[in-house]
Design brief:
Layout (H helix, E strand, L loop, with lengths): L1 H24 L4 H21 L6 H19 L5 H30 L9 H4 L8 H23 L4 H20 L5 H6 L2 H16 L5
Amino acid sequence: MALFVGERFIEVIALHCLINALLAGIPGKQLALALSMTLILPLMGYHAFVHSVGPPGPMLLINLAISALTWIEYGWADLTKKAEAEMKTPMYIHGVIVSTSFVPYYIAEAMGMPFPLVGLKELDPTTPDPSPMTQFTYFFVALFMAMYSYTEIKGTMEGKVFAVYHYALSCIIAMWQFYPTTTLLGRLFFSLPHAFTLWSTFIVLKEHEKVL
């Protein structure tokens, strides 16, 4: 128990060190505050859902509300024209990858014909067995992936939307990667979105004068 509690404390301390680095490293602190609140979410979810410790339900909701408010007040600003132009490159590449890889991937899962070696069961053994509901869910995911990847390829998605949805996506993926049931292959397979999160964040920090 002492080791368990100590590990959780070390994780929280490490998170606060990372937050301090963000607040100190990003001039103006505005985007840093929004990013810092976002970083809290996956660790908070990891503690609450994996280890059944951490903030009670109402506190989880309060943290979510605070994160949303920081983005509305600080992070949800239009990008500069230069940043918008630069964001088109990762956006296009991401759209091509999603439309040619992940859309067929989830269609195959929905049809009960998962890709060999990297099927969802190989990535996480807790993946539900095929059923009408899983088929509905996977088709639903594939449809919306196809829709947003089309807007990325065409360049009609706003750069700020691409950046901010990747902040949220990285939180969701990171929380799942923390689960002990997630295989090493699963963690590696779904690490690519983090690269696009870092890429889009770099563009925002480099070109977005309003948040610096």
